[in-house]
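Hi Y.,

Following your request, here is the sequence exactly as I used it, all 76 residues.
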Amino acid sequence: MKPQNTNLLIVAALALLTNGLSLLGLNHGSAGALARNIECNSSMSRNIRVAVSLEQLPANPPCRPDNSFAGPFSFS
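Below is the corresponding structure, written out as tokens. Let me know if you'd prefer a different format.
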């Protein structure tokens, strides 16, 4: 075979592997389904990290420093 035909067959095989399952009706194996799965997994892991970090916070908010506000000036 010529090198050009070999390259064409390789590209066609890769296209068939990435899109062939969706063309057959098996959407769970298509490239788009894999991308959605990766995005969903990263979103879930990010939400879990946020939930764990929020659990580690104390129940009460931090106390404010006791800065008493100066009252009105007296001119006596």
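Helices lie at 3-23, 31-55.

Thanks again,
Q.
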